[in-house]
């Protein structure tokens, strides 16, 4: 039976809102006075729950509260949850970037972490020099790095630019090199945050394969945070669902993902304008979403092969330029089936202040097989999210003869596309 390599016991992390640092000199003296008298820290009994949908009314907030779990050697643990749930804070505690306010973290062996793009890299140093710098930060000797450097460079795919300062690297190249260093320097525990989302599809597949090799082949442990439920399910066997700084669910990864996807449906009964489970929504806000058939009738039961238009209402409080709208359709397992994005297919859009407008996203022939699907709406400029609603609505595909053969698509995998197969 595998031994426990990482254990978190009642760990919590408290922050003081509005200021840099934990508190003031007065608060520090108050803590010291209670400590020398053998009493509990007075500020541990106060603090708001980490719920971003509500306005803060207290001076302190618990980013994490009473987290307990353990990870066995060779296990790949997926940590999922909405933005702000506490995932990155938890990884920073496990990586010893910061310390918990309360609780204890016990680990065996060396921990390597890849938390943010460019972490541990100096922009003026070359890629090769940064390999040695980052390796040293991770606790490796120069001899160990020398033995692995050719393999690291080859895996990263940055060989052409390896002697170029990393300030000239794209974010994707930086992630490639950072992951290559962390994965090849033989950590006992590898901690990977959402940074892999910056890489291209080929590198993501390569990175997931490497993490599987690290776990299964070398018996090392991986902690993986991602919003890509497909990657999480393919890579992990067990998961944690964080919600408002606490563990909402722990168990098999399929059950954890299912619970996570269902949490966004709690507010689906409300109008989109009233929903609070969103990222952004202050300056720009989605207000409505409906699906129209060819007769412009609202529908929720769709037929594959037919034409449908997603009519999405919004309101803006500012003039905005260079807007990208994205409609992502994913199934109940979190697997993305369709992405519509005007940034890819047409020109960027400009929005005027104080106007109630609609976006029309039309799919000429719906290529989805039977099943239930969710719609995620995102609006962003080049530099920031304006509004992001993960479960804007749900709909069902209930049939349809996409290919005109008199037969319905039986398999629930993939999507249907026009094609031909001929013998030559």
Q: Order of SSEs, N→C?
A: EHEEEHEEHHHEHEHEEHEEEEEEHEEEE
Terminal Cα span: 56 Å
Structure classification: alpha/beta
Q: How large is the share of residues in beta strands?
A: 25-35%
Number of domains: 2
Task: Give the count of helical stretches.
Answer: 9
Features:
globular, 424 residues, alpha/beta, Coagulation Factor XIII, Chain A, domain 1, 9 helices, Rossmann fold, seven-stranded mixed sheet, 2 domains
What does this structure look like?
It is a single chain. The chain is an alpha/beta fold and 424 residues long. The protein folds into 2 domains: 203 residues, P-loop containing nucleotide triphosphate hydrolases (Rossmann fold), CATH 3.40.50.300; 128 residues, Coagulation Factor XIII, Chain A, domain 1. It is 23% helix and 34% strand. It contains 9 helices and 20 strands. β19 and β20 form a beta hairpin. α3 crosses α4 and α4 crosses α5. The relative contact order is 0.11.
């Amino acid at each position: 039976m595998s031994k426990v390599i990482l254990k978190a016991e009642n760990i919590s992390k408290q922050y003081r809102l509005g200021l840099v640092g934990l508190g003031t000199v007065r608060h520090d003296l108050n803590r010291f006075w209670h400590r020398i008298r053998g009493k509990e820290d007075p500020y541990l009994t106060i603090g708001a729950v980490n719920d971003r949908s509500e306005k803060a009314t207290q001076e302190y907030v618990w980013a994490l509260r009473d987290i307990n779990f353990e990870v066995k050697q060779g296990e790949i643990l997926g940590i999922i949850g909405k933005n702000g749930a506490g995932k990155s804070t938890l990884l920073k505690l496990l990586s010893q970037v910061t310390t918990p306010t309360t609780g204890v973290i016990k680990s065996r062996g060396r921990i390597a972490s890849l938390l943010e793009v460019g972490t541990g890299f100096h922009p003026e140093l070359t890629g090769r020099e940064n390999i040695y710098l980052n390796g040293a930060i991770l606790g490796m000797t120069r001899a160990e790095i020398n033995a692995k450097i050719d393999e690291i460079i080859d895996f990263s795919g940055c060989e052409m630019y390896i002697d170029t300062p990393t300030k000239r690297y794209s974010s994707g190249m930086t992630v490639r090199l950072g992951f290559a260093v962390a994965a090849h320097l033989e950590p006992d525990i590898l901690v990977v945050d959402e940074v892999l989302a910056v890489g291209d599809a080929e590198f993501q597949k390569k990175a997931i394969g490497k993490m599987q090799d690290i776990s299964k082949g070398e018996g090392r442990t991986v902690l993986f945070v991602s919003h890509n439920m497909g990657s999480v399910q393919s890579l992990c066997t067990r998961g944690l669902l964080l919600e408002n700084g606490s563990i909402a669910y722990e168990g098999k990864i399929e059950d954890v993902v299912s619970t996570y996807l269902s949490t966004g449906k709690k507010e689906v009964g409300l109008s989109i304008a009233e929903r609070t489970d969103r990222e952004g929504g202050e300056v720009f806000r989605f207000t409505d979403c409906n699906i129209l058939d060819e007769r412009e009738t609202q529908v929720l039961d769709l037929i594959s092969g037919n034409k449908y238009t997603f009519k999405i209402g919004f309101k803006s409080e500012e003039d905005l330029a260079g807007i990208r709208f994205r409609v992502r359709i994913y199934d109940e397992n979190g697997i993305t089936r369709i992405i519509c994005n005007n940034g890819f297919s047409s020109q960027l859009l400009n929005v005027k202040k104080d106007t109630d407008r609609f976006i029309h996203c039309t799919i000429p022939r719906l290529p989805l097989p039977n099943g239930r699907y969710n719609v995620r709406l995102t609006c962003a400029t080049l530099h920031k999210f304006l509004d992001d609603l993960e479960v804007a609505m749900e709909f069902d595909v209930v049939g349809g003869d996409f290919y005109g053969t008199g037969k319905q698509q039986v398999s629930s995998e993939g999507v249907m596309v026009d094609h031909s197969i001929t013998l030559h």
